[in-house]
Amino acid sequence: MEPDFWHQRWHDQQIGFHQDKPTPLLLKHWDSLGISPGNRVFVPLAGKTLDMAWLAAQGLRVLGIELSQLAIDQFFASQGLSPEVHQSRYGRHHVADGIELICGDAFALDETVLADCAAVFDRAALIALPPPMRQRYVHELYARLPANCRGLLITLEYPQHEKNGPPFCVREQEVRELFGREWDIATLERRDILEQQPAFIAEGVTALDTVVYRLDRR
Ligand SMILES: C[S@@+](CC[C@H](N)C(=O)[O-])C[C@H]1O[C@@H](n2cnc3c(N)ncnc32)[C@H](O)[C@@H]1O
């Protein structure tokens, strides 16, 4: 998905991926990572997810990257925050209350800006990208996260021929192929969520699982 696709989505407010509360599977599994308060967590392709506010409320420092200025403005407005803004080679940084959100391209981030990320939280990010971009995303962006970084990755699995992405179906075998070279992967939970997703049913999808992985950078 090219930037124009996402800018149009935000302009039209076609943001069905956005949730009005933090991701329940984040709340359920985050503590199992053992990330101490004060550490930094990377939230790629962040949108205006309330997961960032929840992570900050746990005492973590959040670093998000998002293409859309609209998304970023809406996120800080939803929190009643007026961020301080500065520019760097990565984009426009917005900083308030332990949350730093860069308006820029995730693929332009480097090891320097990601150096102190002890954790990563990936929901609706990997699965927002078509197959060739998923390879770039993992082999370039995730590869710039430091050793010992830990994270949660949440995917969807459904018969891809029944619906066009995004979100795309990313099966466990692909997760293992994408991450296996540099990350240890543990499947924490697999849940059938078809009944809770009427929009998928309306599009003719006949099976839908969400899967939570723990990732450990070697
Ligand atoms: C499906 S949304 C998910 C947002 C968020 N993770 C959530 O759970 O609500 C994907 C987001 O990634 C952003 N995005 C797509 N490509 C990007 C890129 N190369 N760099 C930064 N953000 C990007 C889009 O603008 C969009 O807001």
CATH superfamily: Vaccinia Virus protein VP39
CATH class, named Alpha Beta
Count of folded domains: 1
Figure out the total of helices. Answer: 8
What's the shape?
Answer: globular
Assign the CATH architecture. Answer: 3-Layer(aba) Sandwich
β-strand number: 9
The proportion of residues in beta strands is 25-35%
Identify every distinct bound molecule in the structure, by name, code or SMILES. S-adenosylmethionine
Low-confidence stretches: none
N-to-C SSE series?
HHEHEHEEEHEHEHEHE
Percent helix among the residues? Answer: 25-40%
Average pLDDT, to the nearest integer? 98
Explain how this protein is built.
With 218 residues, this protein is α/β, with parallel strands linked by helices. The chain has one domain: Vaccinia Virus protein VP39 (Rossmann fold, 3-Layer(aba) Sandwich). The protein is 28% helix and 28% strand. The protein contains eight helices and nine strands. The protein has a nine-stranded mixed beta sheet with strand order 3-4-5-2-1-6-7-9-8, sandwiched between helices. The longest helix is centred in the middle third of the chain and has 11 residues, at 131-141. The protein is globular, with a radius of gyration of 16 Å. The chain starts with a helix and ends with a strand. The mean pLDDT is 98. The structure holds S-adenosylmethionine. S-adenosylmethionine is lined by residues 6, 17-18, 45-47, 49, 65-68, 71, 105-107, 123-125, 128, 166.
